[in-house]
C-alpha cells in the first residue's frame, strides 16, 4: 500500500467505523413539507437555495440550486456512497457561473431519507421518480443531466420512464449504464461484497478503500476525511438493494434518447471500464467520448478546469 494512503487510512479508520456503524440503521421517512426552500449565503458570497422534496414513495430528498433561474440548467447526480458535496468544485467553477446548477443527495445518501427496505433501491422507477421530483422542486425547464457512476444509471432510469423530450443533453461521467461483469472491474465487484459486509471492521476498511479507488491521485488528507464522513453516512441497504435490481441494462434508454450525449471518462478508472462509455458512443450517433488522461473514476474532481470548460461548452450547444 502507498505510504500516504496507509498513513491516512490508519489515522481515520476508527472515526469512519463510528460513522458507518451509525449509518447502518436507516431512519424512517420524516415528515416534511412537500417542498421547502431557503437561501444560504456561501463563504464566497454566492447565494444557494437549499430545498427538500418528497419523491413518489414519500422519500425526502435534499438539494441545492445556484444561479439565474432563466439560464441554461445543469442537474448533477452523484455516485454511490457520495453526496451533493461531490460537486463543490463545479459550484465554484467560474466556467459554470453562467448556468443554473442543481445537485441533490440521492436516496440513502447524505441528508436525504434512507428507507430501510432494499426494494426502495432495487426498483429503477424509484430513482427515476427522484429525478423527476427534483426537477419539479427546482423548477427546471430543460436541464442537462450529469450522471456520475451510479448517477449515470439514475439518469438512464429517468429517461427510461419519462423520456428525454424535456432534457437538453446528458453528460455521463464514468457512468454505470449496464450492470455487466465485463464492463465493471473485478475490484468493483469485490467492493459490492465488502462494503455491504455485516462485519463492521470489514465494512469500515472496505469503505475507506472504495473511496481511495475513486481517484488516480488521492486528494489531500483533509479532503479525504470529509469524503469519508459522507461515505460512512450511506446506508448499507443502498448497495444491497441496488445490486438486486431487475433493471440491469439502461443502454436502450440512452440509444433512443434524441438529445446529445457527452461521455467523460478517466483512463485510470479502477471501477468502471472505459468500454462502458465506448458502448454508449457506439449506439448513440450524437455522442462524443472525452478521455481524461490524468484521472481515475472522478475526472470532474481530478481535472476540474478541463471538465468545467468541456461541460460549459456542451451545455451551451445543447441549449441552442
Kindly describe this structure.
With 320 residues, this protein is an alpha/beta fold. It has a single domain, classed as Rossmann fold (3-Layer(aba) Sandwich). Strands 1-2-3-5-4-6-7-8-9 form a nine-stranded mixed β-sheet, with helices on both faces. Strand 1 and strand 2 form a beta hairpin. It starts with a helix and ends with a helix. The N terminus is likely disordered.
Query: Mean of the pLDDT scores?
Result: 89
Q: Compute the number of structural domains.
A: 1
Largest sheet: 9 strands, mixed
Which class do the helix and strand fractions yield? alpha/beta
As a percent range, the share of strand residues is 15-25%
Overall spatial form: globular
SS summary, helix count = 13
Give the strand order, joined by hyphens, for the main sheet: 1-2-3-5-4-6-7-8-9
Instruction: Give the fraction of residues assigned to helices.
Output: 40-55%
Would you report the number of β strands?
A: 9
Rg measurement, Å: 18 Å
The H-and-E topology, N to C, reads as HEEEEHEHHEHEHHHHHEHEHH
CATH architecture: 3-Layer(aba) Sandwich
Distance between the termini: 49 Å
**CATH fold descriptor:** Rossmann fold
CATH superfamily: Alpha/Beta hydrolase fold, catalytic domain
Class, according to the CATH hierarchy?
Answer: Alpha Beta
Unreliable stretches (pLDDT < 50, length at least 5) are 1-45
Pfam family, one: Abhydrolase_1
Protein name: Alpha/beta hydrolase
Keywords: Hydrolase, Signal
GO cellular component, one term: membrane
Amino acid at each position: 500500500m502507498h505510504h500516504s494512503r496507509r498513513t491516512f487510512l490508519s489515522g481515520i479508520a476508527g472515526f469512519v467505523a463510528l460513522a458507518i456503524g451509525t449509518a447502518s440503521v436507516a431512519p424512517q421517512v420524516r415528515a416534511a413539507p412537500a417542498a421547502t426552500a431557503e437561501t444560504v449565503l456561501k463563504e464566497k458570497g454566492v447565494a444557494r437555495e437549499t430545498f427538500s422534496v418528497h419523491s413518489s414513495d414519500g422519500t425526502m430528498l435534499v438539494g441545492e440550486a445556484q444561479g439565474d433561474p432563466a439560464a441554461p440548467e445543469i442537474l448533477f447526480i452523484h455516485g454511490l456512497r457520495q453526496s451533493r458535496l461531490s460537486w463543490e468544485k463545479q459550484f465554484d467553477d467560474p466556467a459554470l457561473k453562467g448556468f443554473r446548477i442543481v445537485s441533490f443527495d440521492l436516496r440513502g445518501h447524505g441528508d436525504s431519507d434512507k428507507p430501510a427496505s432494499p426494494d426502495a433501491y432495487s426498483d429503477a422507477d424509484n430513482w427515476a421518480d427522484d429525478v423527476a421530483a427534483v426537477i419539479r422542486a427546482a423548477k427546471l425547464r430543460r436541464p442537462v443531466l450529469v450522471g456520475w457512476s451510479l448517477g449515470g444509471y439514475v439518469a438512464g432510469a429517468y429517461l427510461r420512464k419519462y423520456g428525454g423530450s424535456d432534457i437538453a443533453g446528458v453528460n455521463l461521467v464514468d457512468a454505470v449504464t449496464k450492470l455487466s461483469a465485463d464492463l465493471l472491474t473485478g475490484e468493483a465487484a469485490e467492493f459490492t461484497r465488502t462494503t455491504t459486509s455485516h462485519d463492521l471492521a470489514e465494512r469500515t476498511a472496505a469503505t475507506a478503500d472504495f473511496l481511495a479507488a475513486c481517484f488516480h491521485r488521492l486528494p489531500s488528507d483533509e479532503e479525504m476525511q470529509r469524503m469519508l464522513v459522507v461515505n460512512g453516512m450511506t446506508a448499507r441497504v443502498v448497495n444491497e438493494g441496488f445490486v438486486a435490481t431487475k433493471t440491469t441494462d439502461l443502454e436502450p434508454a440512452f440509444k433512443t434518447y434524441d438529445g446529445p450525449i457527452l461521455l467523460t471518462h478517466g483512463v485510470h478508472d479502477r471501477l468502471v471500464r472505459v468500454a462502458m462509455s465506448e458502448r454508449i458512443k457506439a449506439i448513440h450517433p450524437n455522442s462524443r467520448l472525452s478521455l481524461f488522461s490524468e484521472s481515475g473514476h472522478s475526472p470532474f474532481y481530478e481535472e476540474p478546469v478541463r471538465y468545467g470548460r468541456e461541460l460549459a461548452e456542451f451545455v451551451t450547444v445543447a441549449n441552442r
